[in-house]
Amino acid sequence: MIEGRRLNEDTFTVQLITADEELVSLDKTTLREYTIGTESAMPAYGEIFSEQEIADLLAYLLSLKGYEQ
Question: What is the pTM of this model?
Fold first, then answer.
């Protein structure tokens, strides 16, 4: 079994990047099956940070790009 984040997919192949940062290109005709996960790889920070800490982090990240509303 190969697990990774899907980078690209076309009619004939699917390209993944593994947790070890290895690029893997697979020919779809050789696959018995493959699934696309719907669970985010991003951890649930709502259980780690308070609402204020999340708001502060978001404000900081937005300031890096000079975001304007």
Answer: 0.54
